[in-house]
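Data availability (excerpt). The following record was deposited with the supplementary files.
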Amino acid sequence: MSASASAKSPAAKRERKAPRPETWRLRLYIAGNTARCASALANLQRICETHLKHKYRIEVIDLLKNPKLARGDQIFAVPTLVRKLPEPARKIIGDLSNTERVLVGLDLREWPP
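Predicted structure:
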């Protein structure tokens, strides 16, 4: 089989992944300064520093101050993390203490590990 034929095979297409953006855009929805929201932010910062190495931007949105912002990402519980980039968007609800679950949810690691 020629090199060009193998590049077009279904197996070759499955192996290719979309390129990762230079900067990941993450949005963390919280409701005030609760222990659970503070824990979610600290866990997210730790995970990002370990796995994204300064290639991320976290936007924290306090729904007590801006409740209308919950509509855009359809937020029904807090804390909720929304991965805006890379697409497709993904959501993770909770304090982000389960690192493996967060990595899988962000598509940074395959499941099972």
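Summary of structural features: Strands lie at 24-30, 56-62, 80-85, 90-93.
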